[in-house]
Each structure stands twice: as C-alpha cells, then as structure tokens.
Amino acid sequence: MKSDITEIILENCGLGAIKIDSQARIELWNRWMELRTGKSGESVLGCPLKEVFTDADNSFFDTVQYVLSTGLPRVLSPVFHFFLNPYDSQSKQLVKILPLFDQSADITGTLILIEDMTAHLEYESEIETKAREFKEFGKKAKKDEEEALDWLKQQIQFNNAITECLEEGIIIYNRAGIVTFVNPTADKLLQWSRMELVGLNINVFLSGESRVKDVLKTGESIHSDNELFRRKDGSSFPVSYISSPIILEGKIKWGIVTFQDITERKRIEKEINENLERLKKVLDDTVKALSFAGEMRDPYTAGHQRRVTQLALEIAKEMSLGDNIKEAIRISGILHDIGKITIPAEILSKPGRLTEYERIILKGHSQVGYEMIKAIDFPLPVADIIIQHHERLDGSGYPNGLKGDEIRLEARILAVSDVVEAMSSHRPYRPALGAEKALEEIERNAGTLYDEEVVKTCVRLFREKGFTLE
C-alpha cells in the first residue's frame, strides 16, 4: 500500500520521476517523463539507464553511479536541454539524484527527480528587466509619487495575466509594508483571498525574524530557504523566497517577494540527513570494532591507538586545521596499528630484543593495515595515512622511504603522536620512559625525522598547556 501511495505521489508531483535499482535498471518512469521524452513507461521499464538516455552526458551516469556507490545525494543544476522535448523547445532542468535504502540501510537504488527550471529562470529575468524599466521610467517621469504608483498598479494588472499559471507566489508591498499586489499562487499558499490580503501589512504572514523587508533599507536582494510563512489559519510552512527592491527615481519605492512552499523538500532533506547520521554511526562502530580487534592481539598496547588519536587531534586543533583533516586523523589514529592483527602474539609481547626477521615482520604492519583499509570506501584518505605513519622526513622511514612533503600532514602528525605515546608508556621489553624523554626525542629530531611545526605544537601542548595522556 505504501508503494502504491508513493507511485501516485510521483505520478502527480509535477516533476519527472525515475526510479532505478542498484544495477541502474529503470523501475519507475512517470507520466511527466513520458510527455517530455515521448517514451512510454512500458517501453523503458527494466532497461538500463544508459540505453534510454543515449545522448546524455557521461557526467550524469557518473553521478548516478556515485550515488549508488556512496549513498550520498547529488544535484545537477541546471542541466541544459537534458531530455528530449516533443515541442523541440530549449529548457533547463534541475536534476536531483537521491539514494534509496532498505531497512538495513543498504542502498537499493536511486530516485531521480527532474524539475523544469525554464519558467522560473525566465521569470527572474523578466523581473530584473521590469526593475530596470521602472528605474529608467523614474528618470524621465515628471509625475509625483502618486502618479508613479498608479502606473505601477497598471503594470501589475498586466503582469497578473502572465503570473496566473506560475507555481511561485508573488507579493508586492510598499515602503509602509502594505500589500499592493498578490498573484493567485500566493492566495493559494497563504490561504488568504486576494481581496483580503491587499491592503494588509505584510507582517500578517511573516515570521518575527523574517528578513523579507530588509530590502527596503539595503536595496539588495535577499534569498532565504530558512524562514516560515504563516497561513490565514495561523499554521506555518517553510518557504524558499527571493525578496527584491523596486526602485524609481533612484529611490526604493516597493519590495517584491517571490516564494515557494518547500515542505516536501525539507522532509526529503530531513530523511537524507537521518540516513547519513545512521550511516556515520555504522561506520564509526565499525572503526571502533576493528580497533578493538587489533588491541586484543597486543594487550601491552591496549589503549595505545586511542591515546595516539587523542594527542594527534589536540595537535591538529592547536594548529587550527580543518574539520576534514581532523576527521581523517581521528579515523586513521584509531586504526593506524590495525595491521598488527596479523603479527604473531609472541612477537608483539616478546620481552627481549627482536631478531632482524621479527623486526621485518613487525614493520610490515603498515603495509598490511593499508591493504586491509584501502578496500573500505572512506570519504577521506585513511589508508594512505595509515601506510605513511612510520615514514620519516629524511626518507629513513618505512615502508616506502617517503621524504618531506611526500608524506601527508595527517601522517606526520600521527608519527609524532605515536612516538610520544609509545615512549611514555610501558612495553614488555622496557619500562615507560616518560613524556619528557619523549619530548626530548622529537625535539632532537625535529626537521630531520619529524615535522618541525608538528613537534613545536606537541611540545607546547605538554609544557605550556598542561596536556597529559589519559
């Protein structure tokens, strides 16, 4: 029943709607698409998307595949004359590609929504043209403000015939905030009749924090997707609007606001955000589980990855690095020693000096960690950071002997954090050396083995800001 209702909505939503499965085969093709392309639903159902849109740009199919593989929505805006038109007119579409999930948060396909933006864009251009005409008229007119207002009302009456079929509400108001023009769509959205609304103050449907009327002071257009308008019955609904000034004789005389009800868009955005949060939690739990599995293999370093991550994040914060870098450090720090899961326990917990063969095996954990993590489609370079966290600036590190800027900044931060935590903690082959010895080690090799700026930041955290490893 839910599926039937969904299909009815998609058939009557005034948008093109295409549903595809995880293999990019068409499962739904609504009436809008039939009218705009001349292809019936029966002829395309089950067909691969590429076989139906043979003239589409590859970027469209790449975007669809991206959404199928990542679960992240994408928007193509505007796409010029993207689909065939029986009337052979040029048009522009806004194409939204949304992921579909089952109850287990697995991607089952995508929903492609297509909105024809041609009329909207042409109307915006017409409004700008009218505003320029009004300004030029004001330079030449010799009449007073009352005559100019009468002329504007005549123009509004003329424009009303043009705006009858628009899906956007249009309201014009004077400097006192009094409504002077309302189009039919605004009547419908606000549930006021035109005769009731004209002559009232625009505040009757604005929220208390609305910026609509600011154009009367600034003379600059305002666009917002974050306000509510009130209906006659007192209920509210979210809107997307553009409020612009109308200028005559160099002065702002009126304001015009064009708006749409975006209740459905907000609902879809909320669903997408909720799905993203669920996916983030699943990813975070997976990262923690992998980290726990690694630490169970090496009880002497239990908590090591967590403490390295804690210090690395504090260094990144002190260096004022961006959120993406900090998130990459967080995930990489938790997993940086995951490769040790393949190393025999007797080597990890050996109390004495390792043999050369054992050292070679132990050094292989960076490469192993990389191989384990690279198959996971992280949106950040986690695998690269993991394989580089034992590289050194002078090329003496492993496994690839990278130098200087060949090593990612995140890996350079993890390298310093790893050394400080390891020297500060107990190991089966030696007692803890303490934080001060660790700081002396990284200071002595700053600029040679370790990034100089990272070292300075780490030392400052311990000695000046009282940071301690938990």
Through-space gap between termini = 55 Å
What would CATH call the homologous superfamily of the largest domain?
Answer: Hypothetical protein af1432
Total beta strands: 10
* Overall CATH architecture of the largest domain: Orthogonal Bundle
Give the amount of beta strand, in percent.
Answer: 15-25%
Task: Going across the biggest sheet, name each strand in turn.
Answer: 2-1-5-4-3
Shape designation: elongated
CATH topology term of the largest domain: Hypothetical protein af1432
- What is the CATH class name of the largest domain? Mainly Alpha
The tally of helices reads 20
Order of helices and strands: HEEHHHHEEEHHEEHHHEEEHHHHHHHHHH
Radius of gyration from the CA trace?
31 Å
The average pLDDT score comes to 82
Major sheet details: 5 strands, antiparallel
Summarize the structure.
The protein has 470 residues and is α+β, with helices and mostly antiparallel strands. The chain has helices at residues 2-11, 31-37, 41-44, 49-52, 58-70, 118-140, 145-163, 184-190, 194-197, 215-218, 263-297, 304-318, 323-335, 345-348, 356-363, 365-373, 382-388, 409-424, 435-444, 452-463; strands at 16-21, 26-29, 74-80, 92-101, 107-116, 169-174, 179-182, 222-230, 236-248, 251-261.
